Amino acid sequence: MYRSKSEKRTWKVALGILILMCCFAVQSLTGSYANAQQPDKRLISVTGEYTLYVKPDVARVSFGVETDGKTAKEAQSTNSKLMNQVISKLASCGISKEDIQTSNFSLYPIYEMPEDGRGTRAVLISYRCNNTVTVRIKDVSKTGEIIDAAVNAGATNVTNISFGVLDSKKYEDQVLAKAVENARHKAEVMAKAAGVTIKDVFSISDGWVSVSSTRDYMKIAQVELDSSPIEPGEVAISATVRMEFIF
């Protein structure tokens, strides 16, 4: 298609303007990105921490019953009888149905190699059944008493004793606020040492809140004590926050 010289000049001017606009846009974006990557604010970054120790108001204990039998049915039947006795005893101690939960059940064969050493294959000798319930005890002062009662009723294993609080949320606001105070204190100490002054908070983010028992009874097998002295100790409720301050 034929175009006059004036039309060609017009197209060249338009193209030049378009190229300049693109260059300005790229330069503007590059500058914005650089500014985002390199803020002109001077920051102090700290982590605030706080731990509150409280008396536990709930205990969790796992009670297990292990039985053997010549057949799978015999092992399971004996186990069911003993576990029902344990659960009934727990109920008589004031444990509600909602606070008893099955946490493990297994039934499997037991094999052994012949004692005379002549055989090359393991021989089936019995079946073993394991049943475990995890119990929530809302009166921690009765923990030892309830353990003794369950063992006397037929429980063969007591495991995973832990202590906690039923409603930890009522403490969470308190420990978070204290963690923020701790973060500000750290920042002010650092700023003073550096000869500067904190001006404002730049950012703040919630770290985590955890609840843990300071005493950990992980496993007590084959309990045969006349009395089980259980000390609940204290529960630690901890919080952390991450903060940045402008100076």
The biggest beta sheet reads: 5 strands, antiparallel
Overall geometry: elongated
Helix/strand order, N-terminal first: HEEHEEHEHEEE
CA(first)-CA(last) distance: 67 Å
Which CATH architecture of the domain at 58-163 is right?
2-Layer Sandwich
What would you say about this model in short?
With about 250 residues, this protein is an alpha+beta fold. The chain is about 35% helix and about 35% strand.
Describe the structure.
- Helices cover 37% and strands 37% of the residues.
- The chain is an alpha+beta fold and 247 residues long.
- Among the domains are: 43-53 and 169-211 and 240-246; 58-163, Protein of unknown function (DUF541), domain 2 (Alpha-Beta Plaits), CATH 3.30.70.
- The strands form two sheets. A five-stranded antiparallel β-sheet has the order 3-4-2-5-7. A three-stranded antiparallel β-sheet has the order 1-8-6.
- The chain starts with a helix and ends with a strand.
